[in-house]
């Protein structure tokens, strides 16, 4: 009799597709999309369908290591606890830090956050999701008072108009894109793509606005001004549910006085701009979907608010087929937001600016020394590791030596840091710097929950035994906490117990609203946790109950009103010049995930793009003296990388694109990390990964 299929969730993007996995008697794993999962209804993309080919033990590190030699858990954990405790005793709690990952499950995230903020007493825990969606978090808080994604995926199908901004949805959120294309076939949904590149997503749209990098605020200020000029505002909604409209409109009108001015500033034709404005004005059921092209910018938060302003001005928010919609890159970026996995958040959607909330969490955790101020955000955390302020750093399930901007400096910081712990599954560029390596369990071996971009909580379930001496991340964190003397607070029998505690901490009241509320799950029996069906929050636990939020006229702000934010066009932080005449954009390929530690092992996923290639326009290739297929060196103010030239008219002259994925495991200095700028958005701390000026030289091969 064949083994039963196990219902689990894909570990890649923020769509959060349901997967049915089956292990054959020979140990091979087959997967298919779960037809009952509300996110994907049976579909999987190229990465998801190849999941069964990623579960082998090739490359796994299955025992702890100290200084590169194999060690037992007792010795390795003892050393981690001792070095962290000694460092804290000598230099204070802010001398240590955790850098975690949107790949972690909510239960892993919860205990890591609790250990750092509750018991170590520092908020120096930040996540690679800082690089992914921190500007959306900051923009939501500025507009709504809380980090809330109002919509649900069904809105992609209910909308008459879907505006995709800085989002190559076809490759980065493929199943959501397929849902959108199906809706378009059935209902004629209009699709506008706003992206400097002509991506696979732009290939299918009704209107592609290839704006110049960094001009999103100007475009959406132009839209707000157009709505104001044309009398297309929802004046009742603005008067009753919002504040700050007159100033936002007046700044938008000054910034973007006419469609012609917007077109000139954005590098577009006036007719394209007018068509977009008219489409948005005409289609009440419209959603504006934004992703890394908006977030990864020194003005990412302003871009988010420029978008939200247009939805507030028309009252199109939290209603079927309407609203601003941030889609997250990682499988559990949203779960990290729930537990407070960002250094500026406390826990359960509570913040450090609320002393009562800090006291509440301290009492709940029985943590007398709880952190009372935000900690270091990703870029600053690695700066601090490099200059000696951070003396002990624990990296969990992420590869900052490749993925962080200014990656060469990050590698130097990891090398300089007194004590580096890495818990991961395989060797990466980052594990090379680890004084202690702790082997973690991976997808298919561990249990817990993830939350996708529409606030849907789904289970990841194990269907394979944990190999060698690997352990689940939550257990590794709890083991270290116990050895540091915090055992009573970290004595969990399993992830179900952690989840119940996490749920019980939710439901705080923010100016009369209880939005992140999953207290109904705090009493789940173990068997109910095991069989838990995907459920939206709030009201999680009733199965997929697609609850929209913020659809009324009350927001979790002091006056109960949503806030317009007056934002001005600022442009990119570091424009191109004669020395570096090309603006480099970076992002994902269809078939790869992050630094390829999993997808890079699957030949069929490597087949489409077997080596790193920089896409440039033919004009720039000619100006740089290179031809299609040449090996070139890219130099930015921060570092260099090598890649093949791929000439493409998808790039406008003066722009180039390099995939983010390649790591030293495959080719030295081939990814975008060493080139990228560490300059960050002032509100979100998110770095400008979407633009850095470069020059390109043909490499002579000796
Ligand atoms: Fe996995 Fe995302 Fe593909 Fe769904 S769309 S199968 S979550 S990578």
TrEMBL record:
Domain 4Fe-4S Mo/W bis-MGD-type: 3-59
UniProt keyword annotations, A-Z: 4Fe-4S, Iron, Iron-sulfur, Metal-binding, Molybdenum, Nitrate assimilation, Oxidoreductase
Swiss-Prot/TrEMBL cofactor(s): [4Fe-4S] cluster; Mo-bis(molybdopterin guanine dinucleotide)
GO molecular function, one term: 4 iron, 4 sulfur cluster binding
GO CC list: membrane; oxidoreductase complex
GO BP terms, alphabetized: cellular respiration; isoprenoid biosynthetic process; nitrate assimilation
Domain of life the protein comes from: Bacteria
Family: Belongs to the prokaryotic molybdopterin-containing oxidoreductase family. NasA/NapA/NarB subfamily.
The name this protein goes by in its record: Molybdopterin-dependent oxidoreductase
Organism: Aminobacter anthyllidis
Lineage: Bacteria, Pseudomonadati, Pseudomonadota, Alphaproteobacteria, Hyphomicrobiales
């Amino acid at each position: 009799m064949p083994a039963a299929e196990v219902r689990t969730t894909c570990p890649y993007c923020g769509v959060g597709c349901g997967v049915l996995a089956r292990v054959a008697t020979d140990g091979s794993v087959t997967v298919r999309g779960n037809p009952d999962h509300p996110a994907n209804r049976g579909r999987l993309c190229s990465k998801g369908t190849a999941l069964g080919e990623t579960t082998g033990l090739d490359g796994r590190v299955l025992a702890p290591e100290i200084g590169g030699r194999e060690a037992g858990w007792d010795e390795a954990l003892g050393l981690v606890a001792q070095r962290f405790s000694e460092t804290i005793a000598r230099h204070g709690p802010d001398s240590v830090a955790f850098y975690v990952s949107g790949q972690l499950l909510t239960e892993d995230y919860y205990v890591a956050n609790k250990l750092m903020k509750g018991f170590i007493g520092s908020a120096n825990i930040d996540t690679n999701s800082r690089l992914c969606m921190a500007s959306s978090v900051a923009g939501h808080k500025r507009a709504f008072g809380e980090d809330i994604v109002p919509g649900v995926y069904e809105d992609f199908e209910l909308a008459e108009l879907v505006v995709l901004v800085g989002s190559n949805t076809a490759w980065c959120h493929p199943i959501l894109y397929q849902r959108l294309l199906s809706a378009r076939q059935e209902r004629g949904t209009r699709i506008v793509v706003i992206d400097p590149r002509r991506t696979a997503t732009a290939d299918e749209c009704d209107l592609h606005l290839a704006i110049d990098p960094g001009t999103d605020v100007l475009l959406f200020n132009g839209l707000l001004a157009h709505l104001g000029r044309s009398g297309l505002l929802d004046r009742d909604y603005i008067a009753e549910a919002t504040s700050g409209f007159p100033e936002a409109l007046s700044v938008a009108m000054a910034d973007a006085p006419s469609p012609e001015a917007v077109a000139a500033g954005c590098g577009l034709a006036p007719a394209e701009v007018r068509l977009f404005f008219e489409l948005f004005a005409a289609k009440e059921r419209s959603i504006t979907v934004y992703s890394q092209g908006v977030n990864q910018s020194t003005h990412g938060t302003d871009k988010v608010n420029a978008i939200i302003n247009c939805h507030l001005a028309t009252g199109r928010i939290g209603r079927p087929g309407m609203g601003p919609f941030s889609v997250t890159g990682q499988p559990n970026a949203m779960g990290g937001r729930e537990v407070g996995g960002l250094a500026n958040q406390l826990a359960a959607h509570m913040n450090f600016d609320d002393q009562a909330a800090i006291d509440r969490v301290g009492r709940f955790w029985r943590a007398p020394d709880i952190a009372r101020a935000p900690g270091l955000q990703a870029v600053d955390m690695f700066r601090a590791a490099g200059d000696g302020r951070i003396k002990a750093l624990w990296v969990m399930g992420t590869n900052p030596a490749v993925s962080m901007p200014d990656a060469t400096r990050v590698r130097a910081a990891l090398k300089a840091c007194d004590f580096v712990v890495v818990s991961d599954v395989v060797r990466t560029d980052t594990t090379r710097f680890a004084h202690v390596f702790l082997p973690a369990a991976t997808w298919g071996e561990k249990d817990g929950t993830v939350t996708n971009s529409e606030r849907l909580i789904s289970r990841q379930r194990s269907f394979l035994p944990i190999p060698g001496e690997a352990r689940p991340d939550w257990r590794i964190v709890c083991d270290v906490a116990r050895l540091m003397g915090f055992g009573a607070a970290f004595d969990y029998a399993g992830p179900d117990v952690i989840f119940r505690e996490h749920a019980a901490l939710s439901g705080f009241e923010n100016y009369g609203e209880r939005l992140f509320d999953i207290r109904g799950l705090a009493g789940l029996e173990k068997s109910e946790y095991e069989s838990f069906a995907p459920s939206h929050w709030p009201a999680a636990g009733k199965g997929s109950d697609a609850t929209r939020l913020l659809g009324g006229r009350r927001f979790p702000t002091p006056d109960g009103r949503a806030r317009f934010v007056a934002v001005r066009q600022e442009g990119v932080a570091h424009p191109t010049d004669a020395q570096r005449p090309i603006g480099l954009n970076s992002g994902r390929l269809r078939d790869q995930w992050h630094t390829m530690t999993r997808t890079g092992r699957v030949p069929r996923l490597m087949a489409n793009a077997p080596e790193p290639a920089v896409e440039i326009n033919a004009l720039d290739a000619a100006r740089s003296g290179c031809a299609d297929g040449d090996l070139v060196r890219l130099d930015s103010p921060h570092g260099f990388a090598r890649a093949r030239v791929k000439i493409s008219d998808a790039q406008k002259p003066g722009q180039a694109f390099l995939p983010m994925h390649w790591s030293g495991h495959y080719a030295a200095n081939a990814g975008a990390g060493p080139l990228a700028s560490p300059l960050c958005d002032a509100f979100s701390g998110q770095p400008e990964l979407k633009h850095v000026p470069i020059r390109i030289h043909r490499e002579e091969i000796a």
